[in-house]
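If your schedule permits, I should be very grateful for your opinion on a structural question. The matter concerns a single protein, recorded as an amino acid sequence and a row of backbone structure tokens. Could you please explain, in whatever detail you think fit, how the structure tokens follow from the sequence? I set the record out below, with my sincere thanks for your time.

——
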Amino acid sequence: MEISLIQKPASHKIQSKQLSIIFNPTGVAKSDVVLFDHKQDKLRSGAEQKVFEGAGEYEVNDTMLQGVAVGGGGEGVSSVSYAVTGGGLRVVHLSDASVELSDKQIEQLTPVDVLMIPVGDKSGRPEAISKLISALEPRVIVPIGADDSAITKLAAELGVKPEKTPKFKITSRDLPEDSQKLVVVE
């Protein structure tokens, strides 16, 4: 599986053997699946893409997609976090790092191999983000929408050194066993 940044600040693509998934594109982007963490007034997708923007369970090309409503979004609007399971890995794309997850939401999202989590000024304090990471227990953390300052604060909070890369390739064999890894996809 490969994770790459396709549109700054926070639109990422997951590419596996089975399919490609793009999170929150700001324009039309080429992929099999598009996942939005908030309801869109006007969906931006191509004719061949499957588009999901809400809670529920979906299966596309032997990959399970689970959308979990997590709150946030303002004015009663729910944001959706997604768990993507395929190729021996489970990747969770957390839509809002400023909310406190319930036990039920944590149960729906776990286990987590790779956690993609918003980090930055509007994403919540480093302590709150660290608490979410502790609750979800990912083996790899990929900060999204983060500047260098936010990454430095998160790395200090977690006690790890960030690894920067343009594309992050990972298999289940590559997962750290007894530690966490912080990977910044630029």
In short: The mean pLDDT is 87.
